[in-house]
Amino acid sequence: MLRFDSVGMRYADGTVALKTVSLHIPAGQFCVVLGASGAGKSTLLRMANGLVSPSSGAVHVDGVRVAASSLTQIRPRIGMIHQQFNLVLRSTVAANVLGGALPAMPMWRALAGLFPAATRRRACELIASVGLQEQHLRRRASELSGGQQQRVGIARAFMLEPSLVLADEPVASLDPHASQEVLALLKRQALERGTTVLCSLHQVDLARSFADRIVALRDGAVVFDGPPEDFDPSIARAVYTKATEATGAAAKPAADAAAAPASAPVWTSPMPLHAGVLEMAS
Ligand code: ADP
Asked: Consecutive sets of 10 residues in the chain, 282 residues long: mean pLDDT of each?
């Protein structure tokens, strides 16, 4: 469904954001990408919808290679959910959700705001399905709480029945309670529709609660790929320890990481602690 074949990314300034990453994410999977800030999570997600072109390797969505020439074909199949919600704050909830249908509309209709009746019905259904009420339809997005705004973001992402949803740190701006609610909602929407989700997070506890599979990145390399129950605190510590901080014997698994099969957890022994790791892993 979503395939990263030996993708690497070196930005123009020489920063290597991803080394050689290969992943196959099957249809319907809720895959969480974990990692500290700068690990390469956003770069990976942005490759899937062509916002970033890999320096090496290839990405395929539904068997179609992501490239400049295929973007018009691929983009309508992909829903995006953003950390800062990316809503038009002065527009209504209804207008924001309808905006999710724009990539599939002719330009003249989009400019005139002429949404077909079926599209309007779908927007209403989705707004209801994310737990918002009729009175919210005409409310400006700016008048909603963060959790409610992200519900609008989820409804918008599902407007075109995407086969893939990319969620880039969707709960980073929310409190713990709203984070749980929003992820539960995202998971339910995806499950009901068989949608594949690639979701980046930095909270280990949320990843363990919601993921079907966790892929952990550290310094641009996959250091764990497996089921959430295998992602134990010692692995969490390793993921959140920068390679440059790992010394002596503890640094050895980093070399093993490159050679280990993607399906096997890489880290098996406790690693030096990095500030904040214990709270994140608990
Ligand atoms: P994450 O999402 O895990 O925080 P990113 O993918 O945003 O990680 O970044 C990975 C690395 O690539 C970081 O070192 C970051 O500074 C760098 N990076 C991201 N975008 C760019 C860019 N446009 N130009 C140069 N370096 C970048």
From this structure: 97 97 98 96 97 97 96 92 93 95 84 87 94 92 95 96 96 93 95 97 94 97 96 90 53 35 35 30 32
Architecture of domain 2-270: 3-Layer(aba) Sandwich (3.40)
Task: Give the mutation target among 9, 11, 34 for probing the ligand 1 site: most ligand atoms within 8 A of CB.
Answer: 11
Would you kindly state where each structural domain of the chain is located, as residue ranges? 2-270
Ligand 1, CB within 6 Å, residue ranges: 11, 13, 15, 17, 35, 37-43
Strand order in the sheet with 56-61: 16-25, 2-10, 56-61, 64-65
pTM above 0.70, yes or no: yes
Instruction: Read off the tokens for 176.
Output: 């713990």
Q: What CA–CA distance (Å, rounded) separates 36 from 60?
A: 26
